[in-house]
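Input record (one chain):
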Amino acid sequence: MPDEQARKALQQLLSDSSNQVNQLAADPHLSAWQNAEVNALQQSMQQAYRLYGQQLYSETSILLRDIQQQSSALQQNYTQAYETAYQTASAAFTNTDLPAAQLNNSRALAVNPLYAPALQLQQRLDVATQVQELWQQVRVAQLENNVSKQKTLLQQIRQLDPADQQAAQRLAALNQQAQQQSFAEVVAQAVAALDQADYAAARQALARARSIDSSRSELVNLQRRLDSAEKAGAAAQAEQQIQVFIEVDEWPTVKMLAENGLKLNADNPVLQQALQNANQIIQAGQRLQSFLASPQRLTDANIRQRANEAITAVQPLTAQSARLAQQLSQLQSLLQAQAQPVPVLVKSDGRTSIRVLGVGNVGEVKEKTINLLPGTYQFEGSCKGYRTEIISVEVRPAMPAVQLQCKTRI
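The corresponding structure, as predicted from the sequence alone:
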């Protein structure tokens, strides 16, 4: 009688062996392939259970180990049978020996009808004759240098036999060749459009080239050429437009065009100079207009001085702008008018002594005409026993008489 540990080990061996035999018997394809051996193993397991029941533990252990060895060998032989047949079939298929491939693959499937590699090979064998005919047509199309026909035939092969790697590789190579040719054609179109200064067409061609292969270095160089050409073209167009508006003396438009052009061509000297001239002429015109808009201010000597300074500063710019020259002429005329004395009629009571402060005496008069330059003056009237009167008078052409007399007694 074995000890408890040995008995449990024998029970585990009995369970493992039973499971191993049951797995073999549960595989209908293996059982069909070696039915007698499977039955013999099942009978041996029944014998092992009987021996165990009779407490013949040593005999049971020996029988169980023999059962396990036979089971493993049967499983190995079964697997080797269909795998070897499949490998032979696969090699024959690679060598285009279709009859041998069909024969051996059928043997593999006869042993294991569910063996996936053999099932896949069988699918290829079912269409192999059609595929061979298509390959023959591919070779003819290749001799004819008919790329389109080759691609069509290769696609048909791929549809019939998706596992045909040679067809996949050939088709990929043809597609790449077509892509490169298409890329070269579109790039050539872009270059031609650039040479003809058709920048819109060049940009469209570049976009098509990028959609074909965006990684090509040619695209970077072409984009640089296009950007440079567009900038140069835009600058030339801006220069032409600016010249038109310079000729019609539209300097605000010149300023706008120059600023827009410099956004793309910041270092363009023609545009820079045009903007500088436009700013100077516009600012000069605004300066002159500030005096022309309020000519009465020119009666003030300080204002007249600033107006003369403006004329001196603006003078060099009048050669570029007839409008500016006209403004300058108008201001000069106003200043010239301010330089002409104005006859001023002074009326009083004959006893008030009148003088113009800072200019001179008028005297005690009832009426007297004096000449003063346009401007604002202080007239003072004084009389013994009366408060002195002072009035401010703006002297201008066609002005009314100045009346001044002392009326308030002291």
